[in-house]
Amino acid sequence: MEVQLFARHAKGVELTREGETIFPYIQQALGCIDKAEQQLQELKQLEGGHVTIGGSDSTFKHFVLPSIQRFQVRYPNIHIRLQHGSTPQIIEKLDNGSIDFGFVHLPVQARHVETQPFLSISSLFVVGEQNRELAGRPLLLEEVLDYPLITFSRTSSSTQFLHRLFERQGVHVQPDIEVGSVELLIECVKLGMGVAFVTKDFVLRELKKGELIPLEMKEPIEQRTIGIVKGAAVIVSC
Fold first, then answer.
1. DSSP code string of 107-153
2. Given strand 224-230, what is the order of strands in its sheet?
3. Distance separating alpha carbons of residues 130 and 227, to the nearest angstrom
4. What three-state secondary structure class fits 225?
5. pTM for this structure?
6. What are the two backbone dihedrals, phi and then psi, of residue 173, each rounded to the nearest 5 degrees?
7. What is the pLDDT of residues 51-68, one digit of tens each?
């Protein structure tokens, strides 16, 4: 069925009754297209939109926030969202699309994502004043187990790294106390509840004040890597 939308006459062209009926819908559709083109242009020039980043609270606090702050200063119109999670949770959030990219401890087993190194970190064993006698000489890993061992949850990358460290020496390790935050781990150690394994940057203030005491180990503890994990189509610049 053909419908005439325009009528021609000597003074030009005007809408027919049918044309006037559908014109508001066409006008609305064109407005949506214009708005979409504008938003795409803003995103292309980083003048608008939002980005959602995943990571642990400690990783954000000690390593990532300075980079986010520089990004915020450079692109003030980009809305930034931070989502908390462990490394497995960050991978899951990336899979379900709730984050654009995340910061995790490498390596990760997921092959469907891309990773790139961000920075290297050091880990160490620490004790409180009540266990200062441990700090007098280089220790074997087995000697640490003579004291209660304080770690993060067994699913954390730090604890998994610790297990691999002991396994290379043929030793099975079972933490005595598992905590969910750096703050709680620090308090447990300061109270003399045992030996803790922790990222050095997380406890620099306590080490400087003498509230925590680092242990010297005979076996070297290699550095770990924090990396950026993202989907193949996501480009990240830090």
1. P---TTSEEEEEEEE-EEEEE-GGGGGGGGS-B-HHHHTTS-EEEE-
2. 79-84, 50-55, 101-106, 224-230, 114-121
3. 36
4. strand
5. 0.73
6. -115, 140
7. 899 999 989 998 999 988
Beta carbons of 142 and 171 less than 8 angstroms apart:
yes
- Which amino acid is located at 193 in the chain? M
Q: Return the H-helix or E-strand segment holding 12.
A: strand 12-15
> What is the C-alpha end-to-end distance of the chain, expressed in Å?
58
Lookup result for tokens 């996501």: 234
Residues 73-92: what's their mean pLDDT?
88
- Nearest 5°: CA angle at 117, between 115 and 120? 145
Instruction: Kindly indicate the confidence band of residue 237, based on its pLDDT and cuts at 50, 70 and 90.
Output: very low
Domains and CATH numbers, the chain: 6-44 (no CATH), 50-121+226-230 (3.40.190.10), 123-222 (3.40.190.10)
The per-residue DSSP string of 177-204 comes to: EEESSHHHHHHHHHTT--EEEEEGGGGH
Q: Residue 155: what residue type?
A: T
124 to 58, 90, 130, 142: CA distances (angstroms): 16, 25, 18, 15
CA angle in degrees (0–180, nearest 5) for 154-67-113: 55
pLDDT of 217-226, one tens digit each? 998 899 999 9
Q: How far is CA 90 from CA 21, 120, 134, in A?
A: 51, 19, 37
Compute the Cα dihedral for 91, 93, 97, 103 and give only its sign: negative
